[in-house]
Design brief:
16% strand, Rossmann fold, N-acetylglucosaminyldiphosphoundecaprenol N-acetyl-beta-D-mannosaminyltransferase activity, cell wall biogenesis/degradation, TagA_TarA, WecG_TagA_CpsF, two-stranded antiparallel ribbon, EC 2.4.1.187, 13 helices
């Protein structure tokens, strides 16, 4: 079972990439299901005001700290979370291990053509990878989606619809899917396909991806105000306890 801390009533897993991979592939081996949700300050703030979103996050098996603000919050409250686990990097770690262990992945979501392009790039990078199937996110027949994923015999399902829609879809349909590992991955298919450029590696390493995004997308400045508000709430709650 994952080690967790609670930040503003939202669970956050305290794991490393290695420990997550070990646990996730143990779930596959034992034919158990595991649901991964990425958590950042913006999502925690929304969850504080939205009990349904908070329940959605907290009922997942792994809530990965995808945001340097979550690490700062843990430190402020005397916690132990020091490893940032980004959604796309965890996805790639899972894919690398899936190629080694001959496990099957399925890509569901994004605009028409994007999942196919991501598949082509992944197979180029990992020739041994078994991509069981792809479906774009504009397929409306849910029964068809479920049947297609189940018939593919996929072990791992990546859903790219944006959050929290992708997580809501996973929770709603998880019990009917014969898949072990579920992860909502947002715009990761577009990144893999080459349609979207990630921040430079050095900014990600230093936890400055937010600054890069602000520079290239200055209209995001209002969203960036969430971080100081979030940290202030964490401090206030710590001082009350």
């Amino acid at each position: 079972m994952a080690n967790k801390e609670t930040i503003l009533n939202v669970d956050v897993s305290n794991e490393t990439y290695d420990s997550l991979i070990r646990q996730l592939f143990h779930h596959i081996k034992e034919k158990q299901q595991a649901f991964i949700v990425a958590v950042n300050p913006e999502k925690i703030m929304k969850a504080e005001q939205n009990p349904e979103l908070r329940d959605l996050i907290n009922t997942a098996d792994y809530q990965i700290p995808d945001g340097v603000g979550v690490l700062l919050a843990s430190k402020l409250k005397g916690g132990q979370i020091t490893n940032r686990i980004t959604g796309i990097d965890l996805m790639m770690e899972i894919i690398r291990e899936a190629a080694k262990q001959e496990k099957r992945i399925f890509l569901y979501g994004a605009k028409p053509g994007v999942a196919e392009a991501a598949k082509a790039q992944l197979i180029q990078d990992y020739p041994n990878l078994q991509v069981a199937g792809v479906l774009h996110g504009y397929t409306e027949a849910n029964e068809y989606i479920i049947d297609t994923i189940n018939q593919s015999q996929a072990d791992i399902l990546f859903v790219a619809m944006g959050s929290p829609r992708q997580e809501e879809w996973i929770r709603k349909n998880q019990s009917r899917l014969h898949v072990s590992v579920f992860q909502g991955v947002g715009g990761s298919f577009d990144v893999i396909a080459g349609n979207t450029k990630r921040a430079p590696a050095w900014t990600r390493k230093l936890g400055l991806e937010w600054l890069y995004r602000l520079i290239v997308e200055p209209w995001r400045w209002k969203r960036q105000l969430v971080l100081p508000t979030f940290l202030l709430k964490v401090i206030r709650k710590r001082n009350k306890n």
